[in-house]
Amino acid sequence: MHPRAITASPYRPSETIENRHQKLIALLATGHTDASAARQLGVSRRTVTYMLRSMMDELGINNRFQLGIAVGARSRSCEACPEPGRSGATDIAHDHGRY
Q1: Which H or E run contains 97?
Q2: Are 52 and 41 within 8 A, CB to CB?
Q3: Please, what is the end-to-end C-alpha distance for the chain in angstroms?
C-alpha cells in the first residue's frame, strides 16, 4: 500500500527553511519514506536526512523518535490544527509556531 500523496511543490530557493521542514514533516507523518518525501519535495534523500538532523539539532534532541514526540506535542497545542485521523490532518503544517 502506498502512502497517501501530498502535493508538495519542488524546492524553490526563495522558500524558507522552516516551510521546507513543515512540508517534510507533513509528508513523513502521512507515511512517506525519506525517499518518497525527497521525490515529493524535489530534493535528494540525503537532503531529507540533513533537514531532519537540522531540526533535531535545533530542538536539542538526538533521534527521530524524539523529533516525532516534539513535533506531535507542538502540533497538539495548535487549536486551528485538525485532530489526527480527520480529513485535514495531512495538510501541510500551519504557519504558526515552529514545525
Answers
A1: none
A2: no
A3: 27
Query: What are 38-60's pLDDT values in tens digits?
Result: 999 999 999 999 999 999 999 99
Joined grid coordinates for residue 27? 509528508
φ, ψ of residue 34 to 5 degrees: the values are -55, -40
* pTM for the predicted model, two decimal places: 0.61
CA 57 – CA 68 distance, rounded (Å): 14
Find cell 497538539 and name the residue.
76
* No. of helices (H) and no. of strands (E), the chain: 4, 0
The DSSP symbol for 53 reads H
Residue appearing with cell numbers 514533516: 25
Report whether 56 contacts 67 (CB < 8 A): yes
